[in-house]
Amino acid sequence: MGNPLKISKLGSCATLALLALCCDLVAMPGVAQVVDPGQVASTYSGQVSTGMSQSSAAQNATNRGLQPAPSVQSSAIPDYRPTQLTLPADGEAAAEPRPVATDEPLARLRRQPAGPPGEFEAFVSELVGKPVRRFGSDLLTPSARDFIAPPVVSVPPDYRINPGDEIRLGLTGNVQATNLRLKVDTEGRIFVPEVGAIQVAGVPYRDLQTVIGRAVSRQYKDFTATVGVTRLNGITVYVTGFAAVPGSYTVSSLSTVVNAVLAAGGPAAGGSFRSIQVRRGGKLISDFDFYDFLLKGDKSADAVLQNGDVIFIAPAGAQIAAIGSVNNEAIYEARAGDTLKDVLVYGGGVNTVADIRRLHVLDPMSDQGWQELTPEVAAATPARRGLVLRVLSAVGIAQPQQRLPALVTIGGEVQNPGRYFVQPGTTLDEVIAKAGGLTPQAYPFGAVFVRDSLRRQQAYNFAKAVDELKVSLTAQPLVRYENQDKDHSARLSAVDALVKQLNGRRIEGRLVLPVAPNDQSLPGSFVVENNDNLVIPTRSLAVGVYGMVNSSADFRYNPGTKVGDYVKLAGGVNRLADRRHVFIVRANGTLLSGRGTLSAAALPGDLVFVPIDSQRGAFWARFKDLLNFGFQGALASASIVAITK
Q1: pLDDT band at 191, cuts 50/70/90?
Q2: Distance from C-alpha of 10 to C-alpha of 415, rounded to nearest angstrom
Q3: Disulfide-capable partner of 439 in 55, 221, 341, 413 (CB 3.0 to 4.6 Å)?
Q4: Which of 23, 10, 19, 24 is CA-nearest to residue 57?
């Protein structure tokens, strides 16, 4: 809304003064003067509206070179009532703004998916192994295509009124009107009751209140006017050239080049983001570079459209791909004079971990393959069509351990447990020496040495083994008759539960050291790596027995005692135990199984495990299947004999 326009009532004294002035001008020979009646009216009306007396008003007029009118008694001014202005019933407009209608091409566009990539995009995507699109194409997704300016927006001051716009007029004072909604006709006029037609088309919004107020003041004085725009009529523009969906579009009067181009789906695969031309009346109005908007947020060249404008999207220029350690991997459109360095700037420059010492360039239309350039050479190399610019990463490359320092953690039975930062090539013996050596209570056979690189490798191998196990267990009923379970879904659920449990297992990355049970030192001649962790426990005094035994427990270690004796101490095995597959996990991480396990001598820290016999249930199931098969065969034989007889 603009500021209220206040026009005071023109008193009778001002009328007489104006008439006297005109008479004086006519009577003066040899003098030609032009007087704006509106100026005189505003002069007197402003004085009367502020409560100035008639004599003061006349004196002020005299000071300004105007002839004052003779004094008139205030009783000569007749009383009046405010005039009420109303529109005919069929001229009433809706109270709420109506949305701007769109043309059929926009409706078609919203039903279409994003356009397919161009040939160069497909080549680069295959080269990199992931999708690499043109810069700016992210704005052209079907879910983000409602780019038309909304019908209810704040009208800018420089907006020019167009035919079809709806204006709201309010008047108070001598003339009263509430929310008159006036539509601008095809000739650019609005019709105010008791005032007549007012030409408003092409008038800036900032001046609209003044123009309407001046027209109303010809009929009424001493009133206040408020003016606003309640509805903007759509304008028709034409999007041509290499657009995704070229055609005519009915858009808001406030729409700009960006609104119209994006509403048309943006440039097609062969269209340019760098040259979008606007022509008006056959003349080039602007040549918009979309990169200014996308890279700099600069919309200063984004012209407001007018009815009948033609938007032409030029064919795409030279395209260069920037991949690797850049902030925005994409295919960029270069302009004349651009270099490879400019293309990197379009891509946001190199990222934090890029190797800035060199660049690689590939020309797929030549047989030279990848070429290495320095940044200085790249800054002088023109950006030619079809080039692929790759920036290498400076991280993620394995380095020789002899060159890398390491942070090693040692805990347990050493004189000075802690973390030690050592130089490249340091051995485990040297780190233990830094820690003051082993204590007398140390048990080297039970030392746990964990390596970070080994943990990653074990995790990969374990995941691969679990996947193979899942395939084997899932396919087993298909290849073995005795395992044709009736409830196949229950078996698959059990397999999934087992796989889930295995995947949740924590991989430690332990490295088993070649240590004998009675050794007093560790084999530490190998070089340590970063994040190595060594824990040396005290000598264990127990042997654990778990699994399918009657009483799982830890028992005090007695030298010379056999594993079978500890199983007997646990109450012996139960009826579900698998005696043939009992195994022992030693304190150093090794595993002992097979024949003779129960007769082997136990060691401090041993863990004896008696597994369940998984074949016990399968035997009875197989026996039942064979018995049922034999019964069915006998029944069939008896039937055949009966028939033949």
Answers
A1: very high
A2: 108
A3: 413
A4: 10
